[in-house]
Amino acid sequence: PYTRTLCTIMKEEHFQPIDKSGLERIKELYFSLRIIADCKSLIEKGNYYQISIVYGQLRSLLTDRSKGITPLLFDIASQLNMDLELFHIPDTFEKDLPDLVENVTIRFIDTHFSIDKISPNQKKISLKDFLDIIVVTNKSKKYAVREIISELANKYGGSHYSQKTNMHLLELLSFSTNNQTMLDQLIIQLADLAYQFGIYVLKNITDIELFMHLYLTPKKIKSEVFLLDYKLPYNRNRFSIVLNQKRLHFKIIDTLGVYYQISSNCLIEYNIIHLLNISIETTSNFNTSIKIYIQENLVGELLLENPILPFNQIHSYECFMNKAVDGQKQKYEFGLSEFLVYNKLQNYVQKNQLFEFYSSKKYNNIFWLEENEFGHKKSEKRDFEMSNGFKKKDI
Questions:
Q1: Closest of 41, 18, 37, 33 to residue 205, by C-alpha
Q2: What is the DSSP letter of 39?
Q3: Is 362 exposed, middle or buried, given 0-12, 13-18 or 19+ CB atoms closer than 10 A?
């Protein structure tokens, strides 16, 4: 009796499912896109057996409905209030040629789908509705996109290898070109689509751009100076702007704990206002681009083939000015006149407008941080508090 009671307690208290955090789900999307990219690269080199892994990733991203699960891509897009839409050419074969339908045994339907509109004949459709579009027929059996993904994942290694399949699917798998089944060629196209959508969603989480107008002083201290230091509580995410040896350095640690540093390729001139612009971007090729501009000049650039996973919700970070998050007070002083942070990159026109606006401004009385003084912003707060009150200074 004691054993049965103990087992019951353990079952109730230790094996209840719990919801994953939003950041955990974002990491899963990131890993899924990396897996798809790696598999596609291997398949292009002739390693066709990698296709079963793609089946499973597409099921997880787009069609998984087991136990009330929301597919990963739709789950994260919903949390970010993002619409997932694409363009395709609706199939009109049965409508336009009804007399020929009865004699068709197998038909693969190319709807020419793409995220961007590339043909005037394409119509907009939501990704969720697109998954219900018929793309293959075999006699009377019709397969929608959703069903193709699920059938292949459930029976051919994406989720598991089933002992049984159905005759219609088996017949479709017998059609191939260039040593690859036509269904697998469709799967590769769908993987490209999911990959593009995944990057589109991730960019809303990872891309960030900041603009600062800094007045740096020549006061010498022995170690590096933290001008700005952001740290996400209970997470590895951190980015810092550091002055050392008359150069500006941008340090970043992403969600996965990956660390990089990029430094300006020029020496900083003191006692003048500098317009500093730093951007982090997840590119369309799923790389990470980090750039530093000073006075509109590109002075530092880093392109990472393996993308990093920063988190751009800046209000969630704790931040210090003139002090490291985990450091001591600094015997340095500098001025700050403007500070803007965007959770997306500005386009070429917008960035030029900002450069022109700030370059034309004249500053006298600016916000000033003296020696051993620092600014502090708590997580989830937008305003800074000063260790000794706000001060301004003419320059």
A1: 33
A2: H
A3: exposed
